[in-house]
Amino acid sequence: MKKAMWIISFLSLILTAIALQFMPDSVPMHYNLAGEIDRWGSKYENLVFPIIIIAIFLFWQLFVSYYEKKAAKSAIEKERVEAVTNAKVLKITGVSMATLSTAVQAFILYGAYVEANTDATHAHIDIMKVTCILVGAIILILGNFMPKQKRITQLV
């Protein structure tokens, strides 16, 4: 699972580096609520989002590592099981978030490429709709996965 998170996280950077070779120097960078392009910028500004994706991935890795270490050090079985379950859920969530971000980046790059080459004034792809659809898919995946995890009952 960790390898999948690494691959997916760096896939957005690789995808962006490849796409930049085919983009013109100036691409749309911002849209208003009506979908009109209101700022153009350098194609290299598209590297910011993949770097943010990698930073968020490292944040998820810290959480997973914390719970894996907690599970390894725990002498109490209940705490160990809870830590293992938490690490597993965080791995699935991290992979889902990395996949969502990489897919959104792919749509952003495609839209910027098409809009820059056609001198468009409006967005070619509605990123908000794409993001909502992808978030819905992640909620379905996580909603299917979460109930299957072992529940920890609290002793009060």
Task: Give a written overview of the molecule.
This protein has 156 residues and is mostly helical. The chain has one domain (2-148). Helix content is 67%, strand content 8%. It contains 4 helices and 2 strands; from the N terminus they run αββααα. The chain has helices at 2-20, 48-73, 77-117, 127-145; strands at 26-31, 37-42. A two-stranded antiparallel sheet has the order 1-2. A hairpin with a 5-residue loop joins strand 1 and strand 2. Helix 1 (2-20) packs antiparallel against helix 2 and helix 2 runs antiparallel to helix 3 (77-117). The protein starts with a helix and ends in an 11-residue tail after the last helix.
Secondary-structure topology with pairs:
Layout: H1 2-20, E1 26-31, E2 37-42, H2 48-73, H3 77-117, H4 127-145
Antiparallel strand pairs: 1-2
Provide tags for this entry.
156 residues, mainly alpha, two-stranded antiparallel sheet, 4 helices
Counted beta strands:
2
Spatial order of strands in the largest sheet: 1-2
What count of domains describes the coordinates? 1
N-to-C span: 35 Å
Low-pLDDT runs of 5+ residues are none
Characterize the main sheet: 2 strands, antiparallel
Rg value:
20 Å
Instruction: Output the structural class.
Output: mainly alpha
Please state the overall shape, judged from the principal axes of the Cα atoms: elongated
Beta-strand residue percentage: 5-15%
Order of helices and strands: HEEHHH
Mean model confidence by pLDDT: 87
